[in-house]
């Protein structure tokens, strides 16, 4: 039996990969150019190896402090999502209580509402708490989400009910069942949610721009956005900062891509 020809699919996938990589390659090229070279028409597609753009960006904005802020916010938001969403998902998937289906449908309805509608109420809450220009203002709204609850609920539903019954016969309460039995079994889902949360939190822009105006309390995305001038922008320096900001996420994705794809693919195995 002859093997089916797969080279057309490989050609299409390779073309798609080049399209996806092109913006990152252009970002790196411009970060190593001078300002006049970055403004040339037609554009110059080769770098001039202007490495001074990278130390200059650290002198223009507090990029080191903003990098640390981003790491702290991303770690806190990810930890909160994994804990709170897994607790809610366990309750919706494994516990029986009145109105469980209706409450879960309300959770899913939140996914249909644009996040911009929550911007003003969230800002007013932060003003009332006195949290403007603080890291907790960036962390608190993101520690729980309906999507994370839905994702992990799908994993909990795939586990057999016999596990709960056996643990109950041994005298385990629901919290012990969740922590010692269920949570280790949904590790692929936790890894997938963790990676998605890291990418979302790391690149979040709108909320950090609204709630924090002090450069020392900004995240990387907001700090780099502040470099855009009204009449002129130093694109090589801006792109150098973008390279610094995107490199950690790219490295993390390369390391965790198998777990991420496997976790997302496994989510739809049971409704």
Automatic annotation (TrEMBL):
InterPro entries: MetI-like, MetI-like_sf. Its main location: membrane. It holds the Pfam family BPD_transp_1. Residues 67-256 form the ABC transmembrane type-1 domain. It comes from the Bacteria. Belongs to the binding-protein-dependent transport system permease family. One of its GO terms (biological process) is transmembrane transport. Gene3D superfamilies: MetI-like (1.10.3720.10). Keywords: Cell membrane, Membrane, Sugar transport, Transmembrane, Transmembrane helix, Transport. PROSITE patterns: ABC_TM1. It is a multi-pass membrane protein. This is Multiple sugar transport system permease protein. It is found in: Cell membrane. It comes from Nonomuraea rubra. GO terms for cellular component: plasma membrane. The chain crosses the membrane at residues 7-29, 67-90, 102-123, 129-152, 190-210, 235-255.
């Amino acid at each position: 039996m002859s093997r089916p020809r797969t080279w057309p699919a490989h050609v299409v996938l390779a073309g798609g990969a080049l399209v996806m990589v092109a913006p990152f390659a252009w970002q790196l090229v411009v970060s190593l150019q001078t300002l006049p070279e970055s403004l040339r028409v037609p554009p110059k597609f080769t770098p001039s190896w202007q490495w001074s753009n990278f130390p200059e960006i650290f002198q223009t904005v507090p990029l080191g402090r903003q990098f640390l802020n981003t790491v702290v916010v991303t770690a806190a938001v990810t930890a909160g999502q994994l804990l709170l969403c897994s607790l809610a998902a366990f309750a919706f998937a494994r516990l029986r209580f009145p109105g469980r289906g209706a409450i879960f449908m309300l959770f899913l309805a939140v996914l249909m509402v644009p996040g911009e509608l929550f911007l003003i109420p969230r800002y007013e809450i932060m003003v009332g708490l006195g949290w403007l220009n603080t890291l907790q203002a960036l962390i608190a709204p993101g520690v729980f989400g309906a999507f994370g609850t839905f994702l992990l609920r799908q994993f909990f539903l795939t586990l057999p009910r016999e596990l709960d019954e056996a643990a109950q016969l041994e005298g385990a309460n629901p919290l012990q069942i969740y922590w010692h039995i269920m949570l280790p079994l949904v590790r692929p889902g936790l890894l997938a949610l963790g990676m998605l949360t890291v990418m979302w939190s790391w690149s979040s822009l709108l909320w950090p721009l609204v709630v924090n105006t002090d450069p020392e309390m900004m995240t990387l995305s907001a700090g780099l956005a502040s470099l855009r001038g009204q009449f002129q922008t130093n694109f090589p320096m801006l792109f150098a900062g973008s390279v610094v900001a995107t490199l950690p996420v790219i490295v993390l994705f390369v390391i965790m891509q198998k777990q991420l794809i496997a976790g997302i693919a496994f989510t739809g195995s049971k409704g």
